Amino acid sequence: MGARRASKGKDGDRRIGRRALIVGGAATAAGTAVLARDELARLWWRVPGVDKPREQGAVDFTGARWVAASDANWRRADRPDDYGIDMVIVHVTQGSFDSAVRAFQDPGHKAATHYIVGQDGRVTQMIRELDVAYHAGNRDYNERSVGIEHEGFVDRPQDFTDEMYEASARLTARICARYDIPVDREHIIGHIEVPGTDHTDPGPHWDWDRYMKLVRRARTAPSTPSTPSTPTAPTRA
After folding, report:
1. Every domain of the chain and the residues it spans
2. What is the distance between the alpha carbons of residues 112 and 146, in angstroms, rounded to a whole number?
3. Burial letters for 192-226: b for 16+ Cβ neighbours within 10 Å, e otherwise?
4. Quick check: 109 and 101 in contact, CB under 8 A?
5. Residue 64, SS3?
6. Which long-range contacts (CB under 8 A, 24 or more apart) does 164-169 make?
7. Biggest CA pair distance of the chain
8. Of 16, 88, 100, 236, which sits most exposed with the smallest number of CB within 10 A?
C-alpha cells in the first residue's frame, strides 16, 4: 500500500509469463526443448499434481499471527531456492491495521506484503516468505524481497510508535539473519526507493537512523533462530 505520486499502476508481477504458461507442454514434449535448471526450479510447482509441502497457518516469525492474504495478491514460489532473498522493503499502510488486512484479503486489490506491523507492536503474517508477494510494483524486487507494512500515515510522525519500531526491527533482524542479508540501507529500503514505483512511503517522518540502529542491535542480540512455527488460529479483521 502506501502513499502514491500518481494513479495506481499495474504491477508487472501479476501475470504469469509466457514461459510459465508453456512449461507444462514443453516438459511433456520429449526432445522439443531443453529447459534450463533454474527455469525448472522456478516453475516445477506449476506442473499438475505437484505442490510444495507446507503446513497451513505456519508463520516464519515467532510471535506473528497468521491471517492469509488472497491468493490473487501473491504467487507460490520456493524461495530462496528459486529466487534468492537479499532485501527487506519497508511500507506504510496509509490506513489502519485492520483496513490493510482487509485489503490484502481482497482478490481485487492485487497487492499485499508478507507482514503488517501495528502501532502496538503486533505482527501479522499474511504471505509466507518462501512465496512472492505483490508489494513493490517491480517484479525483480518482488522476487528478491520480503515486504513489511507499518500501520499509519506518512504525514503523521506520531503514528510511528516505539512499539512499532522495536517490533519491526526484530522482524527485519530475523529476516536478515535467515537469508544472510547485510544490515545496511542498500538491502533494507523504503518502497519509494524501488525503481519504477509511484509510492512515497515510508515518507519523510520514518526515522531511518533510529530504525537501522534497532535492527543492528536486534541482529547481534543472542536469539534462537526464527523458523516456521506451528500454525496459529486464523483471524479476520
Report:
1. 65-220
2. 11
3. bebeebbbbbbbeebeeeebbebbeebbeeeeeeb
4. no
5. coil
6. 164/117, 164/118, 164/119, 164/120, 164/121, 165/207, 165/210, 165/211, 165/214, 166/121, 166/214, 167/117, 167/118, 167/121, 167/122, 167/123, 168/90, 168/117, 168/211, 169/211, 169/214, 169/215, 169/217, 169/218
7. 62
8. 236
**Are 154 and 92 spatial neighbours (Cβ–Cβ below 8 Å)?**
yes
Euclidean distance between CA atoms 230 and 228, whole angstroms:
7
Q: Which of 213, 120, 190, 133 is nearest to 159 (CA)?
A: 120
**CATH number given to 65-220:** 3.40.80.10
Instruction: Tell me the per-residue pLDDT of 164-174, one tens digit each, with 9 for 90 and over.
Output: 999 999 999 99
Which pLDDT tens digit goes with each residue over 34-79? 445 555 555 555 555 566 678 889 999 999 999 999 999 999 999 9
Q: Is the pTM of this model over 0.85?
A: no
Q: One-letter amino acid identity for 194? A: V
